[in-house]
UniProtKB/TrEMBL annotation:
Sequence similarity: Belongs to the thymidine/pyrimidine-nucleoside phosphorylase family.
Role description: The enzymes which catalyze the reversible phosphorolysis of pyrimidine nucleosides are involved in the degradation of these compounds and in their utilization as carbon and energy sources, or in the rescue of pyrimidine bases for nucleotide synthesis.
Pfam family, one: PYNP_C
Superkingdom of this protein's organism: Bacteria
Entry protein name: Thymidine phosphorylase
GO biological process, one term: pyrimidine nucleobase metabolic process
GO molecular function: 1,4-alpha-oligoglucan phosphorylase activity; thymidine phosphorylase activity
All residue ranges annotated as the Pyrimidine nucleoside phosphorylase C-terminal domain in the record: 342-416
Pathway in which this enzyme or protein is active: Pyrimidine metabolism; dTMP biosynthesis via salvage pathway; dTMP from thymine: step 1/2
GO CC list: cytosol
Record field: catalytic activity: thymidine + phosphate = 2-deoxy-alpha-D-ribose 1-phosphate + thymine
Record keywords, A-Z: Glycosyltransferase, Transferase
């Protein structure tokens, strides 16, 4: 008979708990048999001692199975994408409908902003009527009809992770490769996926600042997901400047709409295609890149997006004229460059935090988000600016906040005289 003490004691000694013991622990987290103190000791044990590969897979499976696991009976592969979080990154809004237009189904269970990074659900909340908390019946209906639906996790998706994550947050045990892997993957696998692509971000706007840290996470995620039965690849991608030129919730919906309707191209378009092609490849669909490019250029992806928005309670004609529906900030001001020069570095985390302070993200869990605020027209690395030319536009609710954000933007952008070496968006593929 397993009990919490013996699982924790095994971890303390450096002995890997058996898959049965981890399954028992995950169930105990979900049904309350395991106390918060025991959950904290478990998290610290994993953090300090680590788990062998088989243990990480067993914990991921156990957390997935601690709640409801969706299954699907559809005429195409069920696929998804997960990102470790960045700034100006609204790829999900482009990628999900583009994959749907290529014949895949995307039941995307997403999260909210974390730290300086934005969250897909907060962005979708900028669309009037959109139900990020849709029930399972509606979620299934929209996935079947539109090919994609993006919602938040219901209480019965990986409940062991919900509990353990809250405990980790207050016990300094978030930064464990084993716990990060099992946490992210348990929720994704509970959505019943056949294939998954992971975007592990590296750079000033990412949680992982170095390629070495990101590489270790990428390897662990791929190995764990594949061993747990989901065909998975990782792209490690550059996050040393915002992906789209806008940061903030309504502003990023606008950026995604511009790509979906062919008004804009650039890194957001290119990364969406690169990630989507990996997901299709893992699901056995060849020539994904060409198919995705075509899905976006032809308007087929935008049509899927329109169906998803309407199916989840948003305006029927959102795609025709999205600017009519998105909120606009009261104060919109340019940030003038303090000098002339070439943009040699951008502190992405500082830009993300400036948006949080404008009210575009949360400082504490209970904060209400202002969907209209953020930054737009952010300069790109390597661009030449003359003194007084704009580095970005600040969108704020009040003048004082706009000025504070403008100072943060000016401090976050480094001007020099030598253009930085052009670097590809995708640093490495791990599969
Ligand atoms: N996101 C998650 O869902 N879990 C983690 O552990 C880290 C990021």
């Amino acid at each position: 008979m397993t009990d919490a003490r013996s699982v924790i004691a095994a971890l303390r000694r450096g002995d890997a708990p058996t898959p049965e013991a981890l399954a028992w622990f995950a169930q105990g987290l979900a049904d309350g048999t395991v106390s918060d103190a025991q959950a904290g000791a478990f998290a610290m044990g994993v953090c300090l001692r680590g788990l062998p590969d088989a243990g990480r897979v067993a914990l991921t499976r156990a957390m997935r199975d601690s709640g409801h696991v969706l299954d699907w009976d559809l005429d195409g592969p069920v696929v998804d994408k997960h990102s470790t979080g960045g700034i100006g990154d609204c790829t999900s809004l482009v990628l999900a409908p583009a994959l749907a237009a290529c014949g895949a189904y995307v039941p995307m269970i997403s999260g909210r902003g974390l730290g300086h990074t934005g969250g897909t659900l907060d962005k979708l909340d900028a669309i009037p009527g959109y139900a990020t908390a849709a029930d399972e019946a509606r979620f299934r209906r929209v996935v079947a009809d539109a090919g994609c639906a993006i919602v938040g996790a219901s209480a019965d998706i990986a409940p062991a992770d919900r509990r353990l994550y809250a405990v980790r947050d207050v016990t300094a045990t978030v930064e464990s490769l084993d716990l990060i892997c099992s946490s992210i993957l348990s929720k994704k696998l509970a959505a019943g996926l056949q294939a998954l692509v992971l975007d592990v971000k590296v750079g000033s706007g990412a949680f992982m600042k170095t390629a070495a840290d990101a590489g270790a996470l990428a390897r662990a995620m791929v190995d764990t997901a594949n061993a747990a039965g989901c065909a998975t690849a990782v792209l490690m991608t550059r996050m040393d400047e915002p992906l789209a030129p806008s940061l903030g919730n309504a502003l990023e919906v606008d950026a995604a709409m511009r790509v979906l309707t062919g008004v804009a191209t650039g890194p957001l378009h290119d990364l969406s295609v690169a990630l989507g092609a990996e997901a299709l490849d893992r699901a056995g669909i060849a020539e994904g890149e060409a198919k995705l490019r075509d899905a976006i250029a032809s308007g087929a992806a935008a049509e899927r997006f329109a169906r998803m928005i309407y199916g989840l309670g948003g305006p029927k004609d959102f795609v025709e004229d999205w600017t009519r529906f998105l909120p606009e900030a009261t104060v919109i001001e340019e940030v003038p460059a303090p000098d002339s020069g070439i943009v040699t570095a951008i502190d992405g985390e500082a830009l993300g935090l400036a948006v949080v302070r404008l009210g575009g993200g949360r400082q504490v869990e209970s904060d209400r988000i202002d969907p209209a605020v953020g930054l737009s027209d952010v300069v790109r690395l390597g661009a030449r600016v003359e003194r007084g030319q704009p580095l970005a536009k600040v969108h704020a609710a009040r003048e004082g906040q706009a000025q504070e954000a403008a100072r943060a933007v000016a401090a976050a952008v480094t001007l020099g005289d030598k253009a930085p070496k052009a670097a590809p968006l995708v640093i490495e593929r791990v599969a």
